[in-house]
Amino acid sequence: MTRNLNIGLISVGWMGRLHSRAYLATAHHFPELPVRAVLRTAADPDEGGRRHAVEALGYEQAVVDYRDLLADPGIDAVSICSPNFLHREIAVAAARAGKPFWIEKPMGRSAAESREIAEAAASAGVVTSVGFNYRHVPAIAEARRLVRSGALGVITNVRASFLADYSADPGGALTWRFLQERAGSGVVGDLLSHGIDLAQFLVGRIASVTAAQGTFIAERPLPSAGAAGHFSRGAAGGPVGPVENEDYAAVIGRFDSGAIGVFESSRVAVGPHAEYVVEVYGTKGALRWDFQRLNELRLADDRAGYRTIMAHPGYGEFARFQPGPGTSMGFDDLKTIEASLFLRSIAEGRQLAPSAADGWAAAEVADAALASARHGAWVEVPAVTGTTTFDTA
């Protein structure tokens, strides 16, 4: 028998709206789930956000303060889609309130904040989910199966390149994302954390790193009121302020297995809009996936070179969305899979979605890379405690 699960949303921005749609879509794509998400309460200090939550998304009510939402015994689980600088405060409060939570990445502004979040969740015994949505691509599910089954032989090296242009315009506003106190790191947390998680999901834990970083647009125009998004623009000819975190990072890593990884990420690349590539090379073959061709997997398992395989109902959760190869899934579908894993985790009382410990693990790699970039040396990545799903899911 299906039971209702009352959802609370904290922050009604683009990602909060996407979480909301994903919850509703689970009823269509995962009808066997023993719980049904009900959009109960949204919290946002912005009146427009609250109005959108009720009138467009279908929440029963909206409140100004997230604390009122967490204090409501009728709320069963929460989505945390606030800016980075609020993640630790809200997530720890949610854990202490006994609310399972789905939080976006980077989970904390640092490994220390991420650890606090993960340990608070573990202490409270609540299941969690972190927004590592690229894990849920059906082609990535097949890539993981191939790697973990030994089909590619011994893994020798990995390349993850996450290049984007969302900050390539020097006229882009100096929003909170460029301020260390509010965002923490720059492109390392915003983009490269995805590449780090994907590499660990496919191959295993990264044990040590060395890195370099750069900030190439040193100043940006101050934002107008309400500007917060990746593509917000500042007023032309107006005052400017300094960018406090990195535009670009390059990382070399060693995995526990002995494989070597090369990681690169930019938010100011001119050319690629969202060129998020992961390649895995082994003694028997290799594979390649690019987000811009989400529904394709490039595979070389003999000496004839790469061939392109279209995702199909045998890959991951593809069959829940499309009937056959050639009809594509999209970005929002990945969040629906993520929502379903979160709901199943709650219903079954076990960690199935990417966990807070996974978010902490990615943050430790990111912090080690940033430390290496400052000091110019190899840095060991501390192991984390708790349930990580990149090796168990």
Automatic annotation (TrEMBL):
Q: Which residues cross the membrane?
A: none
Residue ranges of domain Gfo/Idh/MocA-like oxidoreductase N-terminal in the record: 5-132
Q: Molecular function terms in GO for this entry?
A: nucleotide binding; oxidoreductase activity
| Keyword Cytoplasm listed | no
InterPro entries linked to this entry: Gfo/Idh/MocA-like_OxRdtase_N, Gfo/Idh/MocA_oxidrdct_glycsds, GFO_IDH_MocA-like_dom, NAD(P)-bd_dom_sf
Pfam families, per database record: GFO_IDH_MocA (PF01408), GFO_IDH_MocA_C3 (PF22725)
What are the UniProt keywords, alphabetically? NAD, Oxidoreductase
Q: What region holds the GFO/IDH/MocA-like oxidoreductase domain?
A: 141-288
Note whether Repressor occurs among the keywords.
no
Recorded superkingdom: Bacteria
Q: What is this protein called?
A: Gfo/Idh/MocA family oxidoreductase
Instruction: Give the organism, scientific name.
Output: Microbacterium lushaniae
